[in-house]
What we know:
By secondary structure, the protein is mainly alpha-helical. The protein contains 8 helices and no strands.
Amino acid sequence: MLSAKSLFQEILANDESFALFCSIAASGESQGGWENARIAALVPESERELAPKITRHGADEDKHGRIFNALMKKRGLDPVPVPPETDYTMLLEKNAIGLAHEQLKRDERLAVQDVVTYLSHSRVTEQRASEQMDLLRKHFADDPDIGRAVKQISNDEDNHLAYCHEELLRFAYAGHGRAIQRTLRECALAEIRIYRDVSLAVMANMGRILGWSKAKSAVLAAGIHAVYAYERLGGWRRMVSLEMPERRDALGGPASTAPEFA
């Protein structure tokens, strides 16, 4: 019987699929680290107090990239090229979700609306990241090889999501509520489509590596389409709601260091 746990176990047990999984994850996290670092450097003067939190967010993402690379190194594996169709972060940027890299490469201050766009984009994508890491934590927290990494990253993603909720609510109270809701909705509807496409591409690549039968691949593809149908019909709304988090000032301190892997 197919299950999320058995599927991940199969991917993690094979060196080639494990290297692809970690390479995809490391690439996305490193890209997120660069984006946050640039945003922190360009925030408008009126929001300079937010810069250390954005910097912390980026440092966490960089750390996650190092963790995934360390997991590969521990198994004697090198990173592999990331197929373009599996590059979630770059596909979001190409579909105008978040702030364009061309804008971030310029040394021009961002507007407050740009910060609202960044936080809205992050609220949506961090929801996805938090849920994915929660799933891995549920099944692999006690795994001797990846358990510590999973728990560290999962805790960080929960912090990032809490930070987005708190800061967006602050901007909403300051009069940006309509812009936030509009941007959140646009980001969420685009993200669920891109996540579907990336999931199909990742599973196709994993299926090739692991030699899955056409029937197994078809079942997995049907499951991905079913998730998209649920999200398109209303599941996306969980990505746009805002509530004050239990974790207040979640990014108010320095980033923690990456765990060492012997």
